[in-house]
Amino acid sequence: MGIIKAAVSAIGGALGDQWLEVLEAGDMGGSTVFTSGVPVRQGGSNIKGTEKTVSNGSIIHVYPNQFMILTDGGKVVDYTAEEGYYKVDNSSMPSMFNGQFGDSLKETFARIKYGGVPSGAQRVFFINTQEIKGQKFGTKNPINYFDNFYNAELFLRCHGDYSVKVTDPLLFYSEVIPKNADKVEFEDISEQYLSEFLEALQASINRMSSDGQRISFVTSKGPELSKYMSECLDDAWKTKRGFEVYSVGIASISYDEESQRLINMRNQGAMMSDATIREGYVQSEIAHGLGQAGSNPNGAGTAFMGMGMGMSAAGGFMGAASATNAQQMQAQAAQQAQAVQPAQAAGTWTCSCGAVNAGNFCSQCGKAKPQPGTWTCSCGAVNTGNFCTQCGKPRQ
Fold this sequence. Notes:
Layout (H helix, E strand, L loop, with lengths): L1 E4 L2 H10 L4 E4 L6 E9 L18 E4 L3 E7 L2 E6 L3 E6 L14 H9 L9 E7 L3 E7 L4 E5 L4 E15 L2 H7 L7 E3 H25 L11 H11 L1 H8 L1 E13 L1 H16 L2 H20 L5 H46 L3 E2 L5 E2 L17 E2 L5 E2 L13
Parallel strand pairs: 2-4
Antiparallel strand pairs: 1-7, 2-3, 3-8, 3-12, 4-7, 5-6, 5-8, 9-11, 10-11, 11-13, 14-15, 16-17
Helix pairs in contact: 2-3, 4-5, 5-6, 8-9
């Protein structure tokens, strides 16, 4: 029992002469993972409500990204992963067209194949080998995440969607597809795998934490997260059930209240380490206090008097803070000046009169710029040797 590949020209001629039974996949949407074959009339119109079994000599049309299975009594007798036309031939041995899946399918086929004689209950099924997208997920409980930047254990919730792809259609048919099903959407079976997905998600996010990824970068690390997820679910999904996580997209991340407080505190501390920002904060607080005093309903004078008393007590602290900020800003300016100074000094030369110049002649005394390899003595003479030609002084 098996299938043989049929020439397209022969199919066209046969259909032109008689009503030959031709089967194709039923309605296969973007989330459909499994559907039965249905007979079609010449021109491609479906025959609704006809017998679903396939007879010897029937033609099966396989489209791209479809895996066709020929079964007998529920057991697989042949398959193909290659597009084209195939003829059912009960006198032939299984052809097993592996296509993109390689010889690994033969091992699976050896475990689930049918070993009897044709029973007359042969059927055709199709498995979608495209990426199945748009599977929503969300974490009910916060996931712990240690962030080295914040040096804290943070807790996050995330929402998004993921996609799956069938990697071993025969194993997928044997272990995942419900028996006697004619059509299966992934949403029909995804609920039982969602808990496993969320467990793998937590393990993968924890792994990203151990790899030193910033918690704020998680949303942009979809490819890395997909790789971690595939590795975590390799045994549970790919090896045992024939499908895998293909991609993971994080749409949003939210933190619990304590984690958000720690993040805000760390970010505020990082900003306040800048003396310019810190001084601006001090001055804005003073201005805010003056504004409140001016709008005091008991009178601005009373408010300013109270504020003056408060300022006399806190003035020392505010003045000291501003003085510290000023010192740090001066230090920052000096550092910036030192960084710029070498660039400004490049290309300048010092004349014997002490003037620093950038041109070819001294701006103070008019002397020419010394040529490379020369030196100017204190007496004013320009020399090339180790002693001055005018006064005899050694080169310094």
